[in-house]
Amino acid sequence: MTPVFLDTVGLIALWDEDDQWHEPASAVFGQLAKVNRTFVTTTLILYECGNAAARRPYRIDVDDLRQQLLAAKQLIDPSDTDLSAGWSSYRSGHAGQAGIVDQVSFAVMRRLGIAEAFTNDRHFAAAGFTPLF
Question: Tens of pLDDT along 83-93?
Fold first, then answer.
């Protein structure tokens, strides 16, 4: 079974109990964990999460996830090819004007054959992926 890509929107929703998407994110994450789905993400996503969580009580959760993903070899450093593809798509405005981190995420997901993302970010759907909540 292919892994699920962890996006910033999904992770923040999972960790932040005040986030408007916390309940659906928690429900979906629980279902994924129950069936032992594996997760991957990029260093860029964790940088975004780290910035968002800098002054939040869940900042430790970001580093805990980073350490877990590193240990499991599920933390992806985007390749030069991923970065180039992301910048090219960013420049062209592909996937509904998605930002650069999303564009690089899409390149990584395509390279790894990942179709599902733990997010509700519409840009993932616009890029042809399945957001899970």
Answer: 999 999 999 99
pLDDT digits (tens, 9 = 90+) for 85-122: 999 999 999 899 999 999 999 999 999 999 999 999 99
CATH of 4-131, one of 3.40.220.10, 3.40.50.1010, 3.30.50.10, 3.10.450.60: 3.40.50.1010
Domain positions in the chain are 4-131
Cα torsion through 29, 33, 35, 39, rounded to 10: 90
**Residue 68 near residue 35 (C-beta atoms within 8 A):** no
Q: What's the pTM value of the predicted model, to 2 decimals?
A: 0.96
Local structure of 101: helix, strand or coil: helix
What is the rounded CA–CA span in Å between residue 9 and residue 45? Answer: 9
92's tokens = 């062209």
Burial class (CB in 10 A: 0-12, 13-18, 19+), 106: buried
Q: Confirm if 11 and 122 have CB atoms less than 8 A apart.
A: no
